[in-house]
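DM from R.C. (forwarded with permission)

"hey, sorry to bug you on a friday — could you get me a structure for this? deadline for the figure draft is monday and I only need the backbone to look sensible"
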Amino acid sequence: MKTGKLLLGGVMLISGCVTGTDVTAGLDRGDFETNYNLVEAVAPTQNMPTSLNASYVGQVKLGVNSGTSAIFGAEVDPILAEILGDLEIDVAWTEGMVTNPFSGTARNFTATESGTANTIAIAGTLNVDPNLPGSVTRVSQASQVIAGQTVPAIDTGAFQYTMTGRLGAAGQQGDVTLLFAGNFIGDAGASMLGAASGGVKDANSTNANLFDAGLGGVFYLNQ
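My reply, with the result:
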């Protein structure tokens, strides 16, 4: 069993036991924390290029921070659910472009009730929504001389995109929206790291709120 905690924006995700192989990225799905920490340990990109055409793979790890949803079925308590999904994201970006440079999918979702062996597969796929804002931002800091020492130029990169789609389990379905935002990591944007937030609205829900269950967590992506 691999256990651990991730704390981000007041949302604590408690890892339980998840077995199986991430066939998309070729990573052990039970080893999310190790894979995430490996990226987190690398410095943010300091030589962000002016164009980027690359494919990334990784995972997202989510918890329910409010509400409930029927898509978890009776097997998993939503408030105790640890949700894992595989990410495949393509970036086709050139500095100055105004269209969304992102495309890709999130799939192979599972939800595991923390502290138990209760796991449910969540069917369906999320896609980068081309109708919602998606962007890459490159920020340049010119070389400076400080106290007689030359500080080299630094070019960093940040991003955001939104994924939408319908997921379901145990005969129930819901519409999911997730905003992914963060920074490029490593040499020339080799990785991406950040936070995911959003929620799920159950099909045929009469709830007046935007979501029946609010979701939040973290993700990593590697070229």
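R.C.: lifesaver. The CA atoms of residues 180 and 196 lie 5 Å apart.
me: no worries. DSSP finds one helix and 16 strands in the chain.
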